[in-house]
Amino acid sequence: RESPTYHRRPINHGATGRVPVSVSRRRTRTVVTGGAGFVGSHLVDKLMARGDEVIVVDNFFTGRKENVVHHLENPRFELIRHDVVQPILLEVDQIYHLACPASPVHYKYNPTNVMGTLNMLGLAKRVKARFLITSTSEVYGDPLEHPQKETYWGNVNPIGVRSCYDEGKRTAETLTMDYHRNEGVEVRIARIFNTYGPRMCLDDGRVVSNFVSQAIRKQPMTVYGDGKQTRSFQYVSDLVDGLMALMEGDHVGPFNLGNPGEFTMLELAQVVKETIDSNASLEFKENTADDPQKRKPDISKAKELLNWEPKITLREGLPRMASDFRDRFLKELDGDFDK
Ligand code: NAD
Ligand code: UDP
Ligand code: UDP
Q1: Structural contact between residues 290 and 160, judged by C-beta atoms closer than 8 angstroms
Q2: Pocket test for ligand 1, best of 68, 85, 100, 203 (most atoms within 8 A of CB)
Q3: How far, in Å, CA of 136 to CA of 243, rounded?
């Protein structure tokens, strides 16, 4: 296959030989796949604020144009509707590869992880870009080790209803390490634990978005099973800080990026009551198959090597998310809503 050469823009030092401030540092050109999604769009905001040229590649499967619409007029920003399962040619320095349906209700319908990751690694290899994959705590499956360290190999059912996601991400990590070892691609691996915040899909199906939506709409919060299973919830700005620290740092990973504060679903419902609606009620429903019983990250590695740790507690983060959800519900009622 013909491979176009990657041209770094020449730096013009001018007649004096002194480096003019405006051209002394070439802008980093960064692609964010899945950049119109929940996490991706917050990452894009921060990269744009840093001064990068940012290209978002997204097929809008679960993402929304509305999440990035505020950048459309900016000449440093480009939005490409594209499915990463298909090859794509771009000239970039960094690739944040997030594209993937992340919620259980969505991911069963789309095995993006393998083909999409292969194409983005092929791209990284061709243009010598640094590649970061957003893997997941789901690679630990229903963990037999608690809290989970990066050295734990996991306990995943290969044929269960969640396997498409778990095994897809495990394969994506494998491909990433293969391209690193065999092709010399610079890679970074993040294992993200449950994350919440503004711009999450309203109909996402994940527990935080469900409880917050239900509390705002005065519907009972649906607790699956007995509600004693645990998760650790991270606010999205903490995750974005972690992803950028990882990309800019010297370590491949994998790194757990999550908030170690662990809550049962009943405790989460209680925090929603305390921070959003004190009258919110509960409704118990049958749990889904293969639901992990506990999950909590050990983040000592990220603390030590990336100098990163989350700052926002659940009690601080939930009201911020609720205010975004309220605005969007109101827009929905006004009919001013694109999806
Ligand atoms: P999201 O669904 O909001 O974002 C995913 C984005 O990828 C969407 O904009 C979607 O349209 C896009 N996309 C999906 N398939 C695509 C394809 N084939 N081609 C191009 N674009 C495609 O989800 P999110 O929560 O923002 O997740 C982002 C990443 O973080 C995912 O890789 C996910 O697996 C990972 N992650 C998220 C969490 C979490 O709690 N949010 C936890 C662990 C891992
Ligand atoms: N690829 C891509 N963009 C590029 C380079 C590669 O989408 O700029 C895709 C390519 O089409 C292939 C995959 O990435 O499907 C892996 O590429 P690689 O060159 O590693 O493998 P090969 O094409 O040699 O099998
Ligand atoms: N859950 C729940 N009510 C809901 C949605 C989910 O009790 O309305 C539970 C679910 O059974 C699981 C936990 O919340 O134990 C987290 O589920 P989620 O889908 O948010 O994330 P994941 O299972 O991928 O960690």
Answers
A1: yes
A2: 100
A3: 13
ipTM: 0.97
165 assigned to active site: yes
Residue 102 has φ and ψ, to the nearest 5°, of -100, -10
Ligand 3 center to 88 CA (angstroms): 35
- Among 96, 107, 140, 165, the active-site one is 165
Confidence class for position 322, pLDDT limits 50, 70, 90? very high
Contacts of 170 (CB under 8 A, 6+ apart): 139, 154, 156
Phi-psi domain of 14 (left: phi exceeds 0; alpha: psi -120 through 50; beta: other): left
| Bridging pattern class, strands 195-196 and 234-235 | parallel
Contacts for 160 with CB less than 8 Å, ≥ 6 apart? 289, 290
What pLDDT does 150 receive? Answer: 97
3-state helix vs strand vs coil in the chain, percent to 5: 40, 15, 45
- Measured distance CA(4)–CA(143) in Å, rounded: 45
pLDDT for the residue 74: 98
Cα 34 to ligand 1 centre (Å): 6
Residue 106: pLDDT band with limits 50, 70, 90: low
Using CA atoms, how far apart are residues 121 and 117, in angstroms rounded to an integer?
A: 6
**Which of 173-177, 249-253, 276-280 has the lowest average pLDDT?**
276-280
Ligand 3 atom with minimal separation from the 291 CA = 15
Q: Per the structure block, which two tokens stand in for 185?
A: 């691609």
| The amino acid at 66 | E
